[in-house]
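Hey Z.,

So I finally got round to the magnesium ion thing we talked about over coffee. Here's the setup:
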Amino acid sequence: MSDMPQTEQTSEVPRHVAIIMDGNGRWASARGLPRLEGHRRGVEALRRTVRAAGDLGIGYLTIYSFSSENWSRPQAEITDLMGLLRRFIRNDLADLHKSGVRVRVIGERDGLAPDIARLLTEAEELTAGNTGLTLIVAFNYGSRQEIARATRRLLDEVTAGRIDPAQIAPETIGRFLDAPDVPDPDLIVRTSGEQRLSNFLMWQAAYSELVFMPVFWPDFDRAALEQAIAEYHRRERRFGGLVARTGS
Ligand code: IPE
Ligand code: IPE
Ligand code: MG
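And the result:
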């Protein structure tokens, strides 16, 4: 609609939203339910959020689904979480594909159960040509581990003589991260009231706006996402300069 007034920068949705989906266990405990029930309801919240993000025109949605440190949980809970991931991909992949969602996965692939590794690859390959929302699943992901992987890849290039160590800049390191072409998150949301990154996107978060919400993840919905975006729009992004830029 070319005769419509130009949308103001301040009303634009953030291009990349990343979410630390936290509080499933506490949601369940508060109701006298097993933690697994919280995780199940968390998957439903994820479905709602992916739909809402697509509708709102967000370009990239990164979700923290299992951290490198989550292996320290009881084996029974790990088994439950792996089962939910398998079921999510098996049940939802066709729908995501139909909606034009492109699925990508960041995190360590080595050492995963072979069927899970295959499902992740299948999701990426099936949806590789889609041009709608890019859904980046951070699975078996830790930011320090990602930076260590990037360092190993970078050093291979140095050893092969293709990169001069004297020329290594932040952008050089960025090129070796798990999803180097994805723009840094504009907005990082964490649910459950905790106010920390827990090893999530620490490199990419250099200038992200952080929004911490008191809601447990299973209760997250479109309204909560819109609330986080509204808070983002109230922020002034300066990127180290003097000219304030409202979140865009
Ligand atoms: C988030 O919920 C899901 C994962 C970390 C896999 P939690 O399981 O961390 O729930 P709380 O933080 O114990 O309530
Ligand atoms: C971060 O939540 C990881 C995910 C949401 C997948 P945690 O519940 O594992 O984080 P901590 O232990 O409270 O920092
Ligand atoms: Mg937690």
